[in-house]
Automatic annotation (TrEMBL):
Keyword terms of this UniProt record: DNA-binding, Phosphoprotein
Keyword Transit peptide attached: no
Domain Response regulatory per the UniProt entry, residue ranges: 7-125
InterPro entries: CheY-like_superfamily (IPR011006), Sig_transdc_resp-reg_receiver (IPR001789), TCS_response_regulator (IPR052893)
Identification of the protein by name: DNA-binding response OmpR family regulator
Alphabetical list of PROSITE patterns matching this protein: RESPONSE_REGULATORY
C-alpha cells in the first residue's frame, strides 16, 4: 500500500460545481488533498509541478478543452498512467466514446445536487481509494 496523502486535481471552470466536489469529498472524510484549477493551462502547470494521484476533468473548460487536455496527459510520460475521471455535464454518447478512446479511466455525469456529489465522492472513494491498485504503487523500477 502507498503511504501519504493522496492528491486529487479537479479541473473545473464552474465554481459552484468545484465547490460541490470539494465539499462532498471533505464531508465524507476521504483525506484527499484537493487542488482546484479552472483551465487546461493551470492544470498543465499543476501536473508538471506536483505529484497527483487522480484527476477529475470536465470536458467543457475554457481554452484547451478537457478532451485535448486528456490527450496531453496521456502523451506525457510523467502522467501517462495517471487515473483520469471525466466528470462532466455532457451526456452525448460521442463525448463518452471519445473520452474512453482518448484514455479516460471513467466517465461520470455531474450530479445535480450536493447529495449527488456526496454519492459520487463515496463511489469514487470506495473504488479509487479502497479497491483499485494505483499505478504509482506498481511502477516497474
Amino acid at each position: 500500500m502507498a503511504t501519504g496523502v493522496k492528491r486529487l486535481l479537479v479541473v473545473e471552470d464552474d465554481m459552484v460545481d468545484a465547490r460541490f466536489v470539494i465539499r462532498a469529498f471533505t464531508d465524507i472524510g476521504t483525506g484527499l488533498e484537493i487542488i482546484h484549477v479552472t483551465d487546461a493551462d493551470n492544470a498543465t502547470i499543476s501536473l508538471s509541478d506536483g505529484q497527483f494521484d487522480y484527476v477529475l476533468l470536465d470536458i467543457n473548460i475554457p481554452g484547451t478543452d478537457g478532451m485535448e487536455l486528456l490527450r496531453q496527459i496521456r502523451n506525457n510520460e510523467k502522467t501517462a498512467v495517471l487515473p483520469v475521471i471525466m466528470l462532466t455535464s455532457s451526456m452525448n454518447p460521442r463525448d463518452v466514446y471519445r473520452s474512453y478512446a482518448s484514455g479516460a479511466n471513467a466517465y461520470a455525469i455531474k450530479p445535480s445536487s450536493i447529495s449527488g456529489y456526496r454519492e459520487f465522492a463515496e463511489g469514487f472513494s470506495r473504488f479509487w481509494l479502497d479497491v483499485a491498485v494505483h499505478p504509482h504503487t506498481t511502477r516497474p523500477h
